From TrEMBL:
This is Pali-domain-containing protein. The keyword Transmembrane applies. PANTHER family: MARVEL DOMAIN-CONTAINING PROTEIN (PTHR28013:SF4), PROTEIN DCV1-RELATED (PTHR28013). GO terms for cellular component: cell division site; growing cell tip; plasma membrane. Keywords: Membrane, Transmembrane, Transmembrane helix. The chain crosses the membrane at residues 7-30, 105-123, 135-158, 178-197. It holds the Pfam family SUR7.
Amino acid sequence: MPRIFHIPGVIFLICAFVLLFLVSISLPYLTALDIARVKFKTGSPSVGQDSNAINEIRFGTWADCWYETDGVRACSSADNAYTTTIYNGGRQDFVTIGASWTRGLAVHPVATGVTFIALLLSLSTHVTATLLASLTAFLAALLTLIAFAIDIALYAWVKHQVGKLDGVASNTDTAPGFWMTFVSFLLLCFAGCTVCFGRRRDRMEGATTYNYSWKDRFRRRY
Protein backbone atom coordinates (compact mmCIF):
# COMPACT_ATOMS: atom_id res chain seq x y z
CA MET A 1 0.00 0.00 0.00
CA PRO A 2 2.70 2.62 0.80
CA ARG A 3 4.12 2.15 -2.68
CA ILE A 4 0.91 3.66 -3.96
CA PHE A 5 2.06 6.95 -2.39
CA HIS A 6 5.77 6.66 -3.15
CA ILE A 7 5.65 5.68 -6.83
CA PRO A 8 3.53 8.71 -7.89
CA GLY A 9 6.10 10.91 -6.14
CA VAL A 10 8.84 9.47 -8.34
CA ILE A 11 6.65 9.94 -11.42
CA PHE A 12 5.99 13.56 -10.42
CA LEU A 13 9.75 14.13 -10.16
CA ILE A 14 10.37 12.58 -13.57
CA CYS A 15 7.69 14.75 -15.20
CA ALA A 16 8.94 17.90 -13.46
CA PHE A 17 12.51 17.17 -14.52
CA VAL A 18 11.55 16.66 -18.17
CA LEU A 19 9.48 19.85 -18.28
CA LEU A 20 12.17 21.96 -16.60
CA PHE A 21 14.85 20.44 -18.82
CA LEU A 22 12.95 21.44 -21.96
CA VAL A 23 12.35 24.96 -20.66
CA SER A 24 16.03 25.22 -19.75
CA ILE A 25 17.01 24.49 -23.35
CA SER A 26 14.33 26.74 -24.83
CA LEU A 27 15.33 29.37 -27.37
CA PRO A 28 17.27 29.43 -29.62
CA TYR A 29 17.18 25.60 -29.77
CA LEU A 30 13.52 24.82 -29.08
CA THR A 31 11.69 27.81 -30.52
CA ALA A 32 8.24 26.53 -29.54
CA LEU A 33 9.07 26.56 -25.82
CA ASP A 34 9.43 30.29 -25.28
CA ILE A 35 8.37 32.13 -22.14
CA ALA A 36 6.71 35.21 -23.63
CA ARG A 37 5.84 36.18 -27.18
CA VAL A 38 4.64 39.32 -28.93
CA LYS A 39 2.55 39.29 -32.11
CA PHE A 40 2.43 42.56 -34.04
CA LYS A 41 -0.83 43.48 -35.74
CA THR A 42 0.01 46.80 -37.39
CA GLY A 43 3.13 48.81 -38.05
CA SER A 44 6.44 47.49 -39.29
CA PRO A 45 8.59 46.92 -36.20
CA SER A 46 12.13 45.58 -36.43
CA VAL A 47 14.70 44.17 -34.03
CA GLY A 48 18.24 45.37 -33.41
CA GLN A 49 20.40 45.81 -36.47
CA ASP A 50 17.95 43.88 -38.62
CA SER A 51 15.85 46.46 -40.46
CA ASN A 52 13.43 43.91 -41.91
CA ALA A 53 9.88 44.14 -40.61
CA ILE A 54 8.78 41.43 -38.20
CA ASN A 55 5.38 40.12 -37.14
CA GLU A 56 6.38 38.18 -34.03
CA ILE A 57 9.14 37.99 -31.43
CA ARG A 58 9.67 35.28 -28.80
CA PHE A 59 11.66 35.40 -25.59
CA GLY A 60 13.35 32.26 -24.29
CA THR A 61 15.79 31.28 -21.58
CA TRP A 62 18.98 31.98 -23.53
CA ALA A 63 17.92 34.08 -26.52
CA ASP A 64 15.10 35.73 -28.40
CA CYS A 65 13.86 34.83 -31.88
CA TRP A 66 11.85 36.92 -34.30
CA TYR A 67 9.86 36.11 -37.40
CA GLU A 68 10.03 38.43 -40.36
CA THR A 69 6.97 39.15 -42.49
CA ASP A 70 8.41 37.04 -45.33
CA GLY A 71 8.55 33.99 -43.05
CA VAL A 72 12.27 34.08 -42.24
CA ARG A 73 13.19 33.28 -38.64
CA ALA A 74 16.24 34.74 -36.94
CA CYS A 75 17.57 34.40 -33.39
CA SER A 76 20.10 36.22 -31.29
CA SER A 77 23.20 34.37 -30.16
CA ALA A 78 22.69 32.13 -27.14
CA ASP A 79 23.80 33.88 -23.99
CA ASN A 80 22.68 34.55 -20.45
CA ALA A 81 21.39 38.09 -19.83
CA TYR A 82 20.65 39.00 -23.46
CA THR A 83 19.30 42.40 -24.50
CA THR A 84 16.62 43.08 -27.10
CA THR A 85 15.87 46.39 -28.82
CA ILE A 86 12.63 46.76 -30.78
CA TYR A 87 12.11 49.67 -33.18
CA ASN A 88 8.90 51.00 -34.65
CA GLY A 89 8.29 51.21 -38.39
CA GLY A 90 10.33 54.34 -39.02
CA ARG A 91 13.05 53.26 -36.56
CA GLN A 92 12.58 56.63 -34.87
CA ASP A 93 11.20 55.15 -31.66
CA PHE A 94 12.46 52.09 -29.81
CA VAL A 95 12.17 50.16 -26.55
CA THR A 96 14.73 47.93 -24.87
CA ILE A 97 14.33 44.74 -22.89
CA GLY A 98 17.48 44.94 -20.82
CA ALA A 99 19.74 42.18 -19.54
CA SER A 100 18.49 42.72 -16.00
CA TRP A 101 15.14 41.21 -17.06
CA THR A 102 16.62 38.11 -18.74
CA ARG A 103 19.56 37.35 -16.45
CA GLY A 104 17.37 35.65 -13.87
CA LEU A 105 16.09 33.13 -16.42
CA ALA A 106 19.21 31.09 -15.65
CA VAL A 107 17.40 29.91 -12.51
CA HIS A 108 15.53 27.41 -14.72
CA PRO A 109 18.54 25.13 -15.33
CA VAL A 110 19.51 25.43 -11.66
CA ALA A 111 16.06 24.18 -10.66
CA THR A 112 16.43 21.41 -13.24
CA GLY A 113 19.67 20.22 -11.67
CA VAL A 114 18.21 20.19 -8.15
CA THR A 115 15.16 18.30 -9.44
CA PHE A 116 17.43 15.66 -10.97
CA ILE A 117 19.22 15.20 -7.63
CA ALA A 118 15.85 14.77 -5.89
CA LEU A 119 14.87 12.18 -8.50
CA LEU A 120 18.03 10.15 -7.89
CA LEU A 121 17.55 10.25 -4.14
CA SER A 122 13.92 9.17 -4.44
CA LEU A 123 15.00 5.93 -6.10
CA SER A 124 16.80 4.82 -2.95
CA THR A 125 15.12 2.58 -0.38
CA HIS A 126 17.14 4.04 2.48
CA VAL A 127 15.08 6.16 4.86
CA THR A 128 17.67 8.94 5.09
CA ALA A 129 17.97 9.19 1.31
CA THR A 130 14.21 9.37 1.00
CA LEU A 131 14.01 12.17 3.54
CA LEU A 132 16.72 14.03 1.62
CA ALA A 133 14.77 13.41 -1.60
CA SER A 134 11.70 15.04 -0.09
CA LEU A 135 13.68 18.04 1.19
CA THR A 136 15.48 18.39 -2.15
CA ALA A 137 12.16 18.26 -4.00
CA PHE A 138 10.87 21.13 -1.86
CA LEU A 139 14.10 23.06 -2.55
CA ALA A 140 13.61 22.48 -6.28
CA ALA A 141 10.01 23.68 -5.90
CA LEU A 142 11.25 26.88 -4.27
CA LEU A 143 13.75 27.50 -7.08
CA THR A 144 11.06 26.78 -9.66
CA LEU A 145 8.75 29.25 -7.94
CA ILE A 146 11.49 31.87 -8.14
CA ALA A 147 11.97 31.06 -11.83
CA PHE A 148 8.23 31.41 -12.40
CA ALA A 149 8.22 34.79 -10.66
CA ILE A 150 11.02 35.88 -13.00
CA ASP A 151 8.96 34.67 -15.97
CA ILE A 152 6.01 36.76 -14.77
CA ALA A 153 8.23 39.82 -14.39
CA LEU A 154 9.66 39.36 -17.90
CA TYR A 155 6.20 38.97 -19.42
CA ALA A 156 4.88 42.06 -17.64
CA TRP A 157 7.91 44.16 -18.63
CA VAL A 158 7.80 43.07 -22.28
CA LYS A 159 4.10 43.90 -22.47
CA HIS A 160 4.71 47.29 -20.86
CA GLN A 161 7.63 48.20 -23.11
CA VAL A 162 6.11 47.07 -26.40
CA GLY A 163 2.97 49.00 -25.59
CA LYS A 164 4.99 52.22 -25.68
CA LEU A 165 5.94 51.88 -29.36
CA ASP A 166 4.25 54.54 -31.50
CA GLY A 167 2.23 53.31 -34.45
CA VAL A 168 2.51 49.64 -33.47
CA ALA A 169 -0.39 47.48 -32.30
CA SER A 170 0.50 44.18 -30.67
CA ASN A 171 -0.58 41.33 -28.42
CA THR A 172 1.77 40.05 -25.71
CA ASP A 173 1.00 36.56 -24.44
CA THR A 174 2.48 33.98 -22.14
CA ALA A 175 4.02 31.04 -23.99
CA PRO A 176 4.38 27.26 -23.38
CA GLY A 177 7.60 27.60 -21.38
CA PHE A 178 5.83 29.93 -18.97
CA TRP A 179 3.13 27.38 -18.12
CA MET A 180 5.53 24.43 -18.13
CA THR A 181 7.44 26.13 -15.33
CA PHE A 182 4.25 26.60 -13.34
CA VAL A 183 3.21 22.96 -13.81
CA SER A 184 6.71 21.86 -12.73
CA PHE A 185 6.31 23.83 -9.51
CA LEU A 186 3.05 22.02 -8.70
CA LEU A 187 4.54 18.63 -9.54
CA LEU A 188 7.52 19.24 -7.27
CA CYS A 189 5.25 20.19 -4.38
CA PHE A 190 3.26 17.01 -4.87
CA ALA A 191 6.45 14.96 -5.19
CA GLY A 192 7.91 16.32 -1.97
CA CYS A 193 4.79 15.30 -0.08
CA THR A 194 4.16 11.89 -1.63
CA VAL A 195 7.77 10.65 -1.51
CA CYS A 196 8.07 11.49 2.17
CA PHE A 197 4.61 10.18 3.04
CA GLY A 198 5.11 6.91 1.15
CA ARG A 199 8.37 6.09 2.93
CA ARG A 200 6.88 7.05 6.28
CA ARG A 201 4.06 4.59 5.71
CA ASP A 202 6.67 1.96 4.87
CA ARG A 203 8.37 2.46 8.22
CA MET A 204 5.08 2.46 10.14
CA GLU A 205 3.89 -0.78 8.55
CA GLY A 206 7.29 -2.37 9.14
CA ALA A 207 7.16 -1.44 12.82
CA THR A 208 3.60 -2.75 13.13
CA THR A 209 4.58 -6.06 11.57
CA TYR A 210 7.50 -6.37 13.95
CA ASN A 211 5.28 -5.70 16.99
CA TYR A 212 2.75 -8.28 15.94
CA SER A 213 5.38 -10.91 15.31
CA TRP A 214 6.99 -10.23 18.72
CA LYS A 215 3.64 -10.58 20.50
CA ASP A 216 2.90 -13.80 18.68
CA ARG A 217 6.20 -15.31 19.74
CA PHE A 218 5.59 -14.21 23.33
CA ARG A 219 2.14 -15.84 23.38
CA ARG A 220 3.44 -19.09 21.97
CA ARG A 221 6.00 -19.34 24.76
CA TYR A 222 3.50 -18.78 27.53
